[in-house]
């Protein structure tokens, strides 16, 4: 039996440790280094374009002479060859775009567009049974000679006449040129020159996501940004520092990737400066060996692949982390799979190599969690929490700082409210209250401790928040008016005969406190509108807005401070009262015998002696406030802002978990980051509780020795 | 001046100050509990229906709030006009100066409906199969006469839908799954026969239901709003007719209790903003009971280990630290652990081992009452451990020694003497744990509580107790209806009532525990010397 009991007792330790280990284990993979493995090599004729299937089981090699060849991965077995399309060998073709679009100039000089699509029978996993449809479209006759097709953009039908419009940028013998046409246009299309500033020669060009702007990289190291509505108009020019050799996008096409001749790699985005958009660098990546030749990006997250003739790397935009790097001789083409888990590299001698890449949480790093990060669409690096967005190309922002900040802010306001109340009330109860009163107060406080936080939160959010909004001034005046009442009435009280005061006063001050408070409340409600009119120009909210630029949110920190303070008062009260009440009688008696007044004894003798106990009470209270979920969830707007103002809300770690975890995909980055938040809460409260417990034990020893 | 500093130094004023702080605490407790009690208890009391002339024509409704003039804002009156389907909203604000000629018409009716909330107005006529059979006041009498039978019919329809049809659906689903995984042709034929018989029974029930539904639609009532708009609804869509201005005091009391009963015993309607909260009460009770079954053995064993078996040392201290910390860990962390460990890890494994035929639809691999109860059991362990320890320590030494002297083993002593002596203390701990469990919401949100559960965790279909089912909970109901509901203004009374109920449960449990503990202390205080 003893064994069973002992095992049973130890399960508690096991449960606590198990909980911590489990939560840590769920959060840990966030920080695992990305891993990659070579999964196969096969030999092929050199190809101009590569397109990996979503599943990573097949690849299409597009070559200007041999057509499109479908290979099984990783063994490289040839599955099929498609030879239709423009007359071969093609004169030029654009790089393959991640969703399988490609523009080709055939032998006859006509431009045709191909949109590669896999047709897979339902549930079929064998790539041999799939068919590839090239979906050739159009045969545009171009007036003028094309040297090299650089990039094209097919706008949806929202343009003129509802037809899909094709925009192409290409190099010609006389420089950079562009054309715009419907895909099925039969008349010849004119190539319009794009005038570059003198002395610059273009090396690469890229349309932006809607095709209304064109980015051009030059031999001289400038990145030009053209507005392409009507005549090309140069908007901005940014200096890159070395010849620009490749341009690319990450998913979403808001971040422009730029590669240089000496291996420099950076990301640019449009930032609004003085009301004008400018192309500015916002991420820099480790330099590569040699000239950057091209980019490819994943369709799942913000990772991208870049290659030079001797090196292939995969970097993540947000974290600037290098997920993969391999030295490959004579690289001709490289691509990353849509899911970002497979890399395929073709070299000039036809050697095709593939790697698997496992980096499920590439979007999280210590820096993104705790530091300022420059996100897409932001003007400067900032702490941001925004885990989900409306679109597939959303950049998740896992900055924990706003949440930690919110937690501290909520706790601070709750403590500001709760500490004086709880400690003075405990001091009074233990030192001055009559025994009968004490026996009545304790159960009342226990009931207060038992009130469900969801009820407090509901009251705070639906009743107090609208109320506070109306009577904010009165509320802030209330402590002052009450103090005023006490000060004004005290002299009268002191005039009363000593006998009355002893009978009605000592130990019963509490009962007089209630009418006093009500008096204070009345006074505050009467003076409030008057005060507001004279000092605040009639409206407190308007005054806040104009004089301090502070917005008054209805569900704000005052409300949270009040409700959460209400929740922690009984905890702090009970522990403090215990500590204060068990200060040995000998000490107080000695003090009183020396002629000290009761208050002097309480303040100078009892309070310092019990201060470790009060400290531990505060620690336990802090622990409770930090982890409180429902009150914060219901009484604030849950906006992760970083602002100390008591008149707006916050989002705490605990509330954040409650809001986000039901929607978080199992074992995704968000799921694990939320587990990390839980671990943080666990560790925080563990620390506070342990400190409190240790201090309390010390205190107990001290009392014993007295 | 000197007297003043003297007086200040002696510090009576500070005693007053700290006394006032305590008063404020007490005032807040009383204020909060009192506020919820008043608001909650007032929810079901019928109010007078006021008819008046507003700026856009006649207005009829209950006056729900009044705002005194504030600065430049004039005084405002809020009417609950009902008729959400006609006016688009239940409440309307008017400037007090715009409202003229208030009166309380005797014939004004408040009609509680199954759909679209309350109707406030009058009855124009009642028809049977499209033929009007009574008009105006006669129609009201007719409706009152026919309403009980129709309501009974409605209850019968709901009963069949929820009970027999639901169970048949489940059986059919099980059958279908069994057929998918059935190996031999014989098994398949048996299953097919079973399926056919179930299907025919199902069709039969559906036909029965259809007939009942047609009967329920026989009578239709045309309702007339105060501004002359009409709305035709089936008689079966009416829950209750309240001639609010004609009710006697006794009638109001009867109405109050009838509404209270509906609240406690009925299912919710209109996305939880009307009707009752029976499933939430039931779910809360079930969850707390399952939690109790799990928390007691674990806590008692731990307390026995700490008090009776372990020698004071590192292990005991570690256990104590563990218990203390368990008490301090935020409840949401328990929720996260419950979700990750119980739901995804344990539940996922159970699904793979025993319910693989149903995958990818999870059975235990999703939130359910079992996981919620387990999580809460973990959360409330410290409460019971502390209380049990105290109770064990209070069992008098002479009793144990007497038992041991009679030759009982240590375990026999514990089982027969110590534990019975400590039982009230354990019960105290358990009650406190139950009150904590009943009020906790955050961990439940992650481990299996839902806003509307289609079926109860305990019902008449085998195996009766469905530990994998999701459930409703009073605390979550408050959060959901008050904060997630699209029509939160109309739902407020329900939230107040639910909060009152939850508060009542928690406060009563606590008072009971406190009483028990005080008695226990008094008794043991007398017997230990």
Give an overview of the whole structure.
The complex is a heterodimer of chains A (706) and B (529). Chain A folds into two domains: 36-120 and 132-387, YVTN repeat-like/Quinoprotein amine dehydrogenase (Methylamine Dehydrogenase, Chain H); 401-705, MetI-like (MetI-like fold, Orthogonal Bundle), CATH 1.10.3720.10. The mean pLDDT of chain A is 87. In chain A, 46% of the residues are buried. In chain A, a hairpin with a 5-residue loop joins β17 (202-207) and β18. In chain A, strands 6-7-8-11-15 form a five-stranded mixed beta sheet, with no helix packed on it. A four-stranded antiparallel beta sheet of chain A has the order 1-31-30-29, with no helix packed on it. In chain A, strands 2-3-4-5 form a four-stranded antiparallel beta sheet, with no helix packed on it. By secondary structure, chain A is an alpha+beta fold. Chain A starts with a helix and ends with a helix. With 529 residues, chain B is an alpha+beta fold. Chain B folds into three domains: 50-119, no CATH class; 123-251; 278-527, MetI-like fold, CATH 1.10.3720. In chain B, the strands form three sheets. In chain B, strands 6, 7, 8, 9, 10 and 11 form a six-stranded antiparallel beta sheet that branches. Chain B has a five-stranded antiparallel beta sheet with strand order 4-3-2-1-5, with no helix packed on it. In chain B, β7 (118-128) and β8 form a beta hairpin. In chain B, α7 crosses α10 and α8 crosses α10. In chain B, 38% of the residues are buried. Chains A and B meet through α1, α3, α4, α5 and α7 of A and α1, α2, α7, α8 and α9 of B.
Task: Give keywords.
heterodimer, A: 706 residues, alpha+beta, Methylamine Dehydrogenase, Chain H, MetI-like fold, 2 domains, four-stranded antiparallel sheet, 33 strands, elongated, B: 529 residues, 3 domains, six-stranded antiparallel sheet, five-stranded antiparallel sheet, 15 helices, 13 strands
């Amino acid at each position: 039996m003893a064994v069973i009991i002992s095992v049973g007792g130890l399960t508690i330790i096991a449960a606590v440790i198990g909980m911590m280990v489990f939560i840590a284990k769920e959060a840990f993979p966030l920080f695992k280094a990305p891993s990659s493995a070579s999964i196969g090599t096969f030999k092929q004729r050199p190809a101009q374009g590569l397109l990996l299937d979503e599943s990573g089981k097949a690849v299409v090699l597009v070559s200007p002479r041999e057509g499109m060849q479908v290979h099984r991965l990783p063994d490289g077995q040839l599955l099929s060859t498609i030879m239709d399309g423009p007359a071969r060998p093609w004169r030029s073709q654009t790089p393959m775009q991640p969703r399988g679009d490609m523009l080709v100039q055939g032998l006859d000089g006509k431009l045709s567009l191909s949109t590669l699509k896999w047709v897979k029978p339902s549930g079929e996993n064998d790539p041999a049974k799939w068919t590839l449809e090239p979906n050739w479209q159009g045969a545009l006759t171009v007036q003028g000679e094309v040297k090299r097709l650089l990039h094209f953009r097919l706008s949806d039908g929202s343009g003129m006449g509802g037809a899909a419009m094709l925009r192409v940028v290409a190099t010609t013998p006389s420089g950079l040129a562009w054309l715009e046409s419907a895909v099925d246009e039969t008349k010849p299309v004119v190539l319009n020159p794009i005038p570059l500033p003198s002395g610059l020669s273009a090396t690469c060009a890229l349309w932006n996501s809607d095709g209304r702007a064109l980015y051009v990289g030059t031999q001289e190291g400038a990145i030009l940004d053209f507005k392409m509505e009507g005549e090309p108009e140069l908007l901005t020019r940014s200096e890159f520092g070395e010849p620009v050799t490749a341009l690319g996008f990450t998913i979403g096409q808001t971040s422009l990737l730029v590669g240089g001749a000496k291996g420099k790699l950076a990301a640019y985005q449009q930032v609004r400066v003085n009301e004008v958009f400018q192309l500015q660098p916002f991420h820099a990546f480790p330099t590569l060996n040699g000239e950057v030749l091209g980019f490819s990006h994943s369709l799942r997250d913000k990772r991208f692949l870049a290659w030079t003739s001797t090196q292939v790397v995969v970097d993540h935009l947000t974290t600037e982390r290098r997920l993969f790097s391999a030295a490959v001789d004579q690289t001709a083409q490289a691509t990353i799979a849509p899911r970002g888990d497979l890399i395929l590299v073709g070299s000039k001698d036809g050697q095709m190599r593939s790697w698997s890449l496992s980096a499920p949480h590439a979007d999280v790093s210590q820096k993104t969690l705790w530091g300022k990060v420059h996100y897409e669409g932001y003007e400067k690096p900032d702490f941001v929490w925004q885990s989900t967005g409306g679109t597939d190309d959303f950049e998740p922002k896992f900055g924990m700082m706003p949440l930690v900040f919110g937690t501290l802010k909520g706790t601070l306001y709750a403590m500001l409210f709760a500490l004086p109340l709880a400690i003075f009330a405990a001091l009074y109860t233990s030192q001055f209250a009559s025994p009968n009163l004490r026996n009545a107060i304790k159960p009342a406080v226990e009931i207060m401790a038992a009130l469900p936080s969801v009820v407090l939160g509901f009251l705070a959010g639906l009743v107090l928040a609208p109320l506070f909004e109306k009577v904010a001034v009165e509320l802030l005046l209330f402590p002052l008016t009450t103090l005023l009442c006490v000060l004004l009435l005290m002299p009268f009280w002191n005039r009363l005969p000593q006998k009355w005061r002893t009978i009605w006063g000592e130990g019963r001050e509490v009962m007089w406190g209630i009418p006093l408070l009500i008096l204070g409340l009345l006074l505050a409600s009467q003076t409030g509108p008057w005060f507001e009119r004279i000092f605040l120009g009639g409206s407190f909210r308007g005054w806040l807005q104009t004089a301090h630029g502070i917005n008054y949110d209805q569900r704000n920190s005052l409300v949270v401070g009040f409700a959460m303070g209400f929740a922690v008062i009984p905890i702090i009260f009970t522990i403090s009262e215990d500590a204060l009440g068990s200060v040995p009688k000998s000490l107080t008696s000695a003090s009183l015998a020396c002629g000290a007044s009761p208050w002097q004894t309480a303040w100078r003798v009892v309070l310092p002696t019990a201060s470790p106990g009060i400290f531990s009470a505060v620690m336990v209270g802090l622990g409770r406030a930090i982890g409180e979920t429902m009150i914060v969830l219901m009484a604030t707007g849950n906006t992760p802002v970083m602002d100390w103002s008591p008149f707006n809300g916050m989002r705490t770690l605990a509330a954040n978990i409650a809001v986000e975890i039901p929607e978080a995909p199992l074992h995704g980055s968000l799921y694990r980051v939320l587990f990390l938040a839980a671990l943080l809460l666990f560790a925080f409260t563990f620390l506070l509780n342990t400190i409190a417990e240790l201090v309390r034990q010390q205190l107990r020893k001290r009392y014993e020795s007295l | 001046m000197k007297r003043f500093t003297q007086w200040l130094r002696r510090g009576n004023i500070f005693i007053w100050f700290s006394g006032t702080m305590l008063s404020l605490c007490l005032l807040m407790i009383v204020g909060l509990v009192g506020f919820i009690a008043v608001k909650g208890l007032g929810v079901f009391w019928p109010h007078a229906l006021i008819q008046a002339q507003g700026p856009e024509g006649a207005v009829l409704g209950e006056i729900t709030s009044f705002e005194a003039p504030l600065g430049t804002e004039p005084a405002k009156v809020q009417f609950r006009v009902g008729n959400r389907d006609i006016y688009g909203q239940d409440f309307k604000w008017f400037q007090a100066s715009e409202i003229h000629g208030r009166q309380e018409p005797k014939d004004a009716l408040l009609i509680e409906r199954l759909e679209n909330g309350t109707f406030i107005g009058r009855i124009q006529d009642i028809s049977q199969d499209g033929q009007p059979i009574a008009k105006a006041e006669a129609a009201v009498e007719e409706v009152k006469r026919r309403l009980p039978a129709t309501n009974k019919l409605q209850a019968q329809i709901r009963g069949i839908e929820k009970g027999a049809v639901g169970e048949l659906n489940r059986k059919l689903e099980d059958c279908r799954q069994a057929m998918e995984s059935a190996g031999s042709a014989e098994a398949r034929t048996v299953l097919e026969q079973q399926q056919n018989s179930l299907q025919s029974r199902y069709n039969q029930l559906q036909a029965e239901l259809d007939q009942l539904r047609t009967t329920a639609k026989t009578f239709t009532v045309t309702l007339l709003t105060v501004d002359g708009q009409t709305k035709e609804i089936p008689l079966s869509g009416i829950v209750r007719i309240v001639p609010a201005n004609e009710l006697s005091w006794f009638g109001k009391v009867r109405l109050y209790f009838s509404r209270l009963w509906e609240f406690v015993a009925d299912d919710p309607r209109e996305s939880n903003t009307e009707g009752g909260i029976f499933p939430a009460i039931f779910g809360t009770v079930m969850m707390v009971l399952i939690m109790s079954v799990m928390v007691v053995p674990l806590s008692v064993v731990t307390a026995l280990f700490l008090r009776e078996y372990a020698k004071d040392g590192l292990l005991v201290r570690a256990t104590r630290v563990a218990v203390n910390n368990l008490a301090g860990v935020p409840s949401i962390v328990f929720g996260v652990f419950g979700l990750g460990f119980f739901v995804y890890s344990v539940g996922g494994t159970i699904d793979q081992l025993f319910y693989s035929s149903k995958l990818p639809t999870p059975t235990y691999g999703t939130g359910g009452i079992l996981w919620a109860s387990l999580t809460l059991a973990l959360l409330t362990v410290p409460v019971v451990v502390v209380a049990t320890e105290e109770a064990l320590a209070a069992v008098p030494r002479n009793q144990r020694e007497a038992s041991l002297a009679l030759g009982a083993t240590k375990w026999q002593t514990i089982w027969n003497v110590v534990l019975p002596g400590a039982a009230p203390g354990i019960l105290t701990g358990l009650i406190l744990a139950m009150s904590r469990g009943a009020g906790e919401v955050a961990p439940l949100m992650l481990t299996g509580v839902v806003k509307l559960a289609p079926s109860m965790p305990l019902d008449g279909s085998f195996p009766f107790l469905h530990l994998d089912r999701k459930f409703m909970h009073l605390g979550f109901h408050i959060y959901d209806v008050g904060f997630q509901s699209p029509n939160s203004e109309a739902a407020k009374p329900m939230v107040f009532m639910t909060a009152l109920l939850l508060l009542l449960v928690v406060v009563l449990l606590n008072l009971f525990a406190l009483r028990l503990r005080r008695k226990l202390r008094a008794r043991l205080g007398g017997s230990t010397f």
